[in-house]
Design goal:
The chain is α/β, with parallel strands linked by helices and 375 residues long. The protein has 11 helices and 15 strands.
Length: 375
């Protein structure tokens, strides 16, 4: 336990369990150690605040880790984050954490094409090795928050982790586009159980979605009429390899498309989502966005944008803030989907708000205040 510097309360560490030890998990863990010694008032790119409520980034402690790849299972988390097929560059020194990566439920978490290595990489799964009881691990580790980072398209496996969070009475952060926190039935279950949850599908620090949303809102506010738009994304990490099969993409396309079109008060032609796997890009993601609109006089306006970012760190700072938000809600006895937190940090929240409104909601949440929404 540590003394909370501002609140004068005795606060615990933020104990985190990670499901899916891929590049995003690597970026989260590395980020915690890269910035653990910065002062409370430091300005860290990608973090809303170094100190989120009473919790400094250094207060995050990793207590459990789940994966299905044999190259990570049995290793200390500090080693597993740098094991294949991860390809995020090392940007921080991580000491041995004393947290062994254990085998979580596979279910539909591994697409067939990810097992055969026909694209040169994939997941190595030993089906003879049994999965652990996630509920038991969460309880034994004392986890406060479980973060779901498993591959896109994992409908059953994501719900298995969500169910485990409910049974273990652990806060839940859903970083992928499986609609759990935004589903009214699941949301009601978290509310009834007294557990806070945030999701779904991380909205990166400055990613394709936030750029597309900003330009769409700007066009609408300036009186342009958007007619058609697309957003195409390519990358070279396992997330993009997993999504090379369209069958894994249904919810991802919905999540990304609704994040953009929710800000446009009429129907438009839209095609949004991952497009291809380009191995040599590694963890770099490249986005191409195009928009066609009509201006005064009936003339056409065309917007053409290219964005290139490191994919996993782009989500990691957002994840660190969301983790601390769920812990803060748990401390205060707040249960169910966190509306403002979800709207600001995720693409497919229970309710969409403009980003500037959602940010105000999060700042008020941190202060323990309620605000009246004016849009």
């Amino acid at each position: 336990m540590v003394q909370c510097r501002d609140w004068g309360e005795i606060m615990a560490k933020v104990k985190v369990a990670l499901a899916g030890i891929g590049n995003v998990a690597s970026a989260i863990v590395q980020g915690v150690f890269k910035y653990r010694d910065v002062p409370d008032d430091a300005d860290i790119p990608g973090l809303m605040h170094v100190k989120f409520g009473p919790y400094h980034i250094s207060d995050i402690e990793f207590v459990a880790a789940f994966d299905i790849d044999e190259r990570k299972i049995g290793k200390d988390l500090s080693e597993a984050i740098f094991s294949k097929p991860n390809n995020l560059e090392k940007f921080a020194e991580v000491p041995k954490l004393g947290v062994e990566v254990v085998k979580g439920p596979v279910l539909d978490g591994v697409a067939p094409h990810m097992k055969d290595f026909r694209y040169g990489e994939g997941f190595l799964v030993d089906d003879s090795r049994p999965s652990v009881d996630v509920v038991d691990i969460l309880k034994e580790s004392g986890a406060d928050v479980l973060v779901n980072l498993i591959p896109v398209g994992s409908y059953e496996a994501s719900r298995a982790y969500a169910e485990a969070a409910l049974k273990a009475e652990v806060g839940f952060v859903n970083g992928i586009p499986e609609f759990i926190v935004s589903d009214p039935e699941w949301g009601a279950r978290f509310k009834e159980k007294g557990i806070p949850a945030a999701g779904d599908d991380f909205k990166s620090q400055l990613g394709a979605t936030i750029v597309h949303r900003t330009l769409a809102r700007l066009a609408v506010e300036r009186g342009l009429r958007i007619e058609n738009t697309y957003q195409l994304n390519i990358g070279g990490n396992m997330d993009f390899l997993n999504m090379i099969e369209e069958s894994r993409l249904k919810t991802k396309r919905v999540s990304k498309t609704e994040a953009v079109t929710s800000l446009i008060p009429y129907k438009v032609g839209a095609r949004v989502g991952p497009s291809d796997y380009v191995p040599f890009l590694g963890d770099r993601k490249v986005m191409y966005m195009w928009m066609e609109a009509e201006q005064f006089g009936g003339f056409k306006v065309y917007i053409d944008v290219k964005l290139s970012v490191m994919d996993s760190p782009n989500a990691a700072g957002v994840a660190i803030d969301a983790i601390r938000a769920v812990k803060l809600a748990r401390d205060r006895g707040i249960a169910g989907p966190l509306e403002g937190v979800s709207a600001y940090f995720f693409k497919h929240p229970p309710k969409q708000y403009p980003d500037y409104v959602a940010r105000e909601m999060v700042e008020a949440f941190i202060r323990g205040e309620e605000i009246k929404i004016k849009i």
